[in-house]
Design goal:
The chain has five helices and two strands, in the order αααβαβα. By secondary structure, it is mainly alpha-helical. The chain has a two-stranded antiparallel ribbon. It starts with a helix and ends with a helix.
Length: about 170
């Protein structure tokens, strides 16, 4: 009689039913959480799209004023500074465009071209020179003038700028 109580199949059926219900509830809860995450991501994508779109007007205004200052100014140094501003703003506008493509789920293509590494590096160093000088850091560039590279200029600019910014912050 003791043996039949230990191996009674009826209580095991109850345990199986309870376990199946628990698994079902956990699956439902996981599905609800996944749905919430999807809704949050969709909302984030919508907000990001709006922010990027709203940034276009101020960026265009700044670019326009930098170009106007360049046309009105007689000093070559002012022309150089305006070019640096316009180049930086153009990169920001491209980053915004990439963000919009990303939010829409579209692929982002590399825009490779051949360009002078020396001229490229000079423009990056010029752009960063004010911040470096403010921090008492001098930057010296040594690069062969005839060296050409085939790369995505904007992405390479981001990499080099980040490396220089990190180095400046570390000093």
């Amino acid at each position: 009689e003791t043996r039949s109580r230990l191996f009674n199949p009826v209580p095991l059926d109850h345990v199986r039913v309870i376990a199946e219900q628990a698994v079902s509830l956990l699956d439902k809860q996981e599905s609800i959480e996944e749905h919430r995450r999807s809704e949050k991501q969709a909302l984030l994508g919508t907000m990001l799209s709006m922010i990027v779109h709203d940034m276009k007007n101020p960026l265009s205004g700044i670019t326009g004023f930098a170009q106007l200052i360049k046309r009105k100014a007689a000093e070559p140094k002012v022309h150089e500074y305006c070019d640096i501003i316009v180049d930086a703003l153009t990169r920001v506008e491209r980053m915004n465009s990439e963000l919009l493509l990303f939010v829409k789920g579209e692929s982002i293509e590399l825009e490779r071209a051949t360009f002078s590494l020396s001229e490229f590096m000079k423009s990056i160093v010029n752009m960063m020179s004010v911040a470096c000088q403010r921090d008492g850091i001098s930057v010296h560039l040594t690069c062969p003038a005839d060296l050409q590279v085939f790369a995505d200029k904007d992405r390479l600019a981001r990499v080099v700028t980040n490396i220089l910014s990190n180095a400046r912050e570390a000093i």
